[in-house]
């Protein structure tokens, strides 16, 4: 399925979409500032591209095990990518990231196809 995040949402809560294996695409607006722990963990079918242009913080495991995810784009507001945020996103090839102050350990672990960061 597809999800469009409502304009009133600034924070995607912890485990909000955890394990939604039929979720294919999420449309974020520029007002989303934080994605909390494991918000999209185990969304195996999520493919993207994911545009997180207003996001400042991606917490631990936010997109962990999203094995279908291929592309992520961040905006210039990005400050922190948490531990294991994209761990085991084995199809992830491209990450556009103009800046980030902190990239915690294992943020992109086992992203075997990642060529552009």
TrEMBL record:
SUPFAM superfamilies: L domain-like. This is Leucine-rich repeat domain-containing protein. It comes from the Eukaryota. It comes from Skeletonema marinoi. PANTHER family: IG-LIKE DOMAIN-CONTAINING PROTEIN (PTHR45661:SF3), SURFACE ANTIGEN (PTHR45661). Signal peptide: none annotated. Pfam families: LRR_5.
């Amino acid at each position: 399925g597809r999800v469009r995040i409502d304009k009133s949402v600034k924070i995607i809560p912890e485990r909000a979409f955890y394990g939604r294996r039929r979720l294919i695409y999420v449309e974020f607006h520029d007002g989303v500032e934080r994605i909390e722990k494991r918000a999209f963990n185990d969304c195996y079918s999520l493919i993207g591209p994911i545009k997180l242009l207003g996001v400042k913080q991606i917490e631990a495991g936010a997109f962990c095990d999203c094995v279908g995810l291929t592309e992520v784009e961040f905006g210039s507001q990005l400050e922190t990518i948490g531990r294991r945020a994209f761990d085991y996103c084995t199809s992830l090839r491209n990450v556009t990231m103009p800046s980030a102050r902190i990239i915690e350990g294992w943020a992109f672990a086992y992203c075997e196809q990642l060529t552009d960061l």
